[in-house]
Amino acid sequence: MINKNPDRHYSFPWFRRSAPIRLGARVAVIGAGIAGACSAQALIKRGMDVVVIDRRSGPAGEASGNLAGLIQPRPGGGNRAYEQLQTSAYLHAVKVYDELSRTHEVWKGVRGLLSFGRDAEFLSRHSQWLANGGLPNGHGISASKADVHEIAGVDIGASGLWFPHAGTIDPAAICRALLSDIPTLYGKTVSKLEQHGDGWRVLEGDGACLIETDAVVLANGFAASQLCPEGSVPLHAKRGQISYMKATQASKKLRVGLSYGGYATPVLVNGAHILGATYQQWPDHQSNKWQELTDADHNENLNHINARLPHLRQILNNGIIGGRAALRTTTADHLPVVGPAFNEVAFKHDYHDLRHGKPVHIYPGATYTPGVYLLSALGSRGFALAPLLASLLAAEITGGPLPVDEAIHNLVSPARFLVRQLKRG
Ligand SMILES: Cc1cc2nc3c(=O)[nH]c(=O)nc-3n(C[C@H](O)[C@H](O)[C@H](O)COP(=O)(O)OP(=O)(O)OC[C@H]3O[C@@H](n4cnc5c(N)ncnc54)[C@H](O)[C@@H]3O)c2cc1C
């Protein structure tokens, strides 16, 4: 069939799909967080032979290991593909976790979530989005102050939005459940991938070979880019700290998770609420200093409530009894990175004159690093995004139909930053 409009997004040769790998191929997934766990599951479902490798002693040892997190929808910000990605991913994640919750404890406390937005303008945009059909019927409604009081079990003193299918999750339990039947190698730090025939040798720091595989999925957060053999992706680290706050008699009545830019959970473990989360650029990712908890960050989590939900603050105390810090992985465009690793030299050769705006059909298809893929940069919403993106990645790897539009496939392509750079010249 002739494509009459070669400029349509799906015909961009630099975003073409990679050649699929054979059914039953051995795939090493590096990273046992939510990205690795979902990738491993999705690949096994498509007939691949998967092993997961992580430097920690078990699953969810880093960003995915908080005691609680929220799953919630996100309104669009004007970009249609972005909005479609966020909404489809959220709805898909809810479905996946509901299925998983038949056999594992996934949701914590009473189901559902109240959202107040980080400020009045955000809340108004979010309400408008909902009123315009942003979510299917029954997935979100406006809640008056009185509704909020009744749903929350305490007087929050604000109106908001009620998402009955969203809620508070147990992130580590989800990763453990997804990885429970999958072969794993824990306590192993991957330092390099070495091409070996048609496949890859996955090497430890001392050069010892951990495993030989047909393909590798880099789901190891910020470190993913460092392991790309032929082209790096600009990833950024953002430190986040959560605070555990001892409950008061009054705050124990809080029934559901609250989102207000930050978030507060009902009492979960050790009689404490979990308050989240700070967000700080973290260039010093080589040292482990990011793990150290700071009082300034605990105060920031408290001040967030002061600023947005002062009524709630009145029933809480200052009894911070602990916390946890981790690094999120992000990109400059705040979108995840999903797809084949690329060959930077070939891209620079084949697309050196992209800035001239010539017709796209004159260019050759993208040159990828065969058998190496990434799923990273899940930012602050890894648990909402990972199930759908893992399914997209598995379709890319095995050659199946994509679970999302081609526009979303292109939007998250690891090569997009290099393509933008070449277009700028
Ligand atoms: C404070 C905070 C609060 C958050 N709250 C929420 C929330 O409420 N809801 C939500 O959806 N998201 C939340 N997030 C974001 C979410 O946690 C992340 O998006 C998600 O965990 C990222 O998953 P991941 O698998 O990509 O990374 P990780 O969970 O970090 O997994 C990467 C894994 O790779 C391993 N690894 C790295 N390098 C190597 C190597 N060289 N060799 C072997 N193994 C390696 C690491 O040990 C790690 O286990 C929060 C994040 C933070 C920091």
Describe what this molecule looks like in 3D.
Helix 1 packs parallel to helix 5 and helix 2 packs across helix 9. The relative contact order is 0.20. The chain folds into 2 domains: 197 residues, FAD/NAD(P)-binding domain (3-Layer(bba) Sandwich), CATH 3.50.50; 146 residues, D-Amino Acid Oxidase, Chain A, domain 2. The chain is an alpha+beta fold and 425 residues long. It has 11 helices and 21 strands. The N terminus is likely disordered. Bound molecules: flavin-adenine dinucleotide. The site of flavin-adenine dinucleotide has 39 residues, from helix 1, strand 2, strand 3, strand 14 and strand 19.
Q: Strands, helices and their partners?
A:
Blueprint: E1 26-30, H1 34-45, E2 49-54, E3 69-71, H2 80-100, E4 107-108, E5 113-115, H3 120-131, E6 141-143, H4 145-152, E7 160-163, E8 167-169, H5 171-179, E9 184-186, E10 190-196, E11 199-204, E12 209-213, E13 215-218, E14 236-246, E15 257-260, E16 262-264, E17 272-276, E18 280-281, H6 295-308, H7 310-315, E19 320-330, E20 337-342, H8 344-350, E21 368-376, H9 382-398, H10 406-411, H11 416-424
Helix pairs in contact: 1-5, 1-9, 2-9
The site of flavin-adenine dinucleotide has 39 residues, from helix 1, strand 2, strand 3, strand 14 and strand 19.
- Cα-atom radius of gyration: 22 Å
Q: In the CATH hierarchy, what is the architecture of the largest domain at level 2?
A: 3-Layer(bba) Sandwich
- Annotation, overall tally of beta strands: 21
CATH topology (fold) name of the largest domain: FAD/NAD(P)-binding domain
Number of helices: 11
Oligomer type:
single chain
What overall form do the CA principal axes indicate? globular
* Beginning-to-end CA distance, first to last residue: 33 Å
CATH class of the largest domain: Alpha Beta
- Bound compounds, please? flavin-adenine dinucleotide
Largest sheet: 9 strands, mixed
How big a fraction of the residues is strand?
15-25%
Which class of secondary structure composition applies to the elements?
Answer: alpha+beta
Helix content: 25-40%
Name the average pLDDT. 94
Low-confidence stretches: 1-9
For CATH, the homologous superfamily of the largest domain is named as FAD/NAD(P)-binding domain
* Tally of distinct domains: 2
